[in-house]
Amino acid sequence: MSGPQCCSNPPTLNPASGGGHVEDFAGFNTYVAGSPHSKLAVILISDIFGYEAPNFRKLADKVAAAGFYVVVPDFLYGDPFVFDKPDRPLAVWLKDHGPDKGFEDTKIIIDALKSKGVSSIGAAGFCWGAKVVAGLARDVLIQAAVMLHPAFLVLDDIKGVKVPISILGAEIDELSPPSLVKQFEEILSAKPEVDSFVKIFPKCAHGWTVRYNEDDPEAVSSANEAHQDMIGWFTKYVK
Q1: Reported pTM
Q2: Rounded to whole angstroms, how far apart are CA atoms 62 and 203?
Q3: Which residue among 42, 50, 56, 236 is least enclosed by CB atoms within 10 Å?
């Protein structure tokens, strides 16, 4: 389940990237963007490369511009996956960074947001982060969920979802191939009480929403389309 696609095309991390800033939020180094006075918040939960990826922060800024207070916590504790460490392949790295820990950490962030007066919260998970979002959607800790090129998901994760959920998958994805995403869609379509939206992006590969090449117009267009789908979902349900 943790194949090479999870690690392909790693971003060049930049701790100074983005139009927002990094602060201590509930004990986590967190990139924040948007008005801290907004009653509507979105938590973005990164892939294995963490919260310093410039395209990821650019997306946070985009969500903030739609009217949300956006928090992007460093749930990897300054230890994102590094591709060229042969002594620490992904399977070993994951032992230190299980999505179950990310789930517990996100509950701390949610409590902190509520204590600031936030009344509605959405969460989006990318690759690794999608597994975290599955738990939040199961336990109704958020008002809306979005999963983008999810990894490590099993059918029971989707069966447990209880809040409006959007799943954005890639046509070329070993971690969540279209056949699996279609199974997710079938499960959700049998749950009429849960609003859902499932879409598979043609010609796109795992990670396309945040690991795109800015010099490739087609890649940028596909990423932007997914970004707008995600923001539209939050605009509809986080209110």
Answers
A1: 0.96
A2: 24
A3: 236
